[in-house]
Amino acid sequence: QSVLTQPPSASGTPGQRVTISCSGSSSNIGSNYVYWYQQLPGTAPKLLIYRNNQRPSGVPDRFSGSKSGTSASLAISGLRSEDEADYYCAAWDDSLSGDVVFGGGTKLTVL
Amino acid sequence: QVQLQESGPGLVKPSETLSLTCTVSGGSVSSGSYYWSWIRQPPGKGLEWIGYIYYSGSTNYNPSLKSRVTISVDTSKNQFSLKLSSVTAADTAVYYCASAGVVPAAISLWGQGTLVTVSS
User: What is the rounded average pLDDT for all residues in chain B?
Assistant: First the structure.
């Protein structure tokens, strides 16, 4: 059971816009930045979005992030076949001594 | 650019201690405000944060693993290490070493990962 809740799957056709949600609580998303990671099959995760909505250098602007209250979303516009991957949200959690918490991951299928 | 590479046994017996090392190349493990971290991923499952050692030497661990985990740094070898004691089959996973800057959740650099299987 992950601390952050994501839908297990999402899908879309090429060119479409898809969104992936991430729900948390006041101790994590509600009071800290959200990060998104993309994991292509058989590879290590890659930082996709940092500080809720910032893209690292090299990440296409088709990817965008947002946060409201204790929830966050990742949006992918102009969907491409190479976007088929697992996506994870993450945040710092202030409870106890503090730790990094991940969502359970969302498998995105490009139909 | 900085690169990370995990190394260690791919097979560990139940009740024994899992030991992995991450070699940092292209940078120094003792410079900069980095959180040198370990994350794992059981086969077919999601990511689980194990913990980090800050460049200053302070550590922080996942509460669910805290009693069994030790992360340390060897500055002479430019490496950081993970020890997980009393392993069971539930500890079978791909283990990633990684580094985060600014805050621990901003994991900007990952190793390729190494599969560790716990089995007799």
Answer: 95
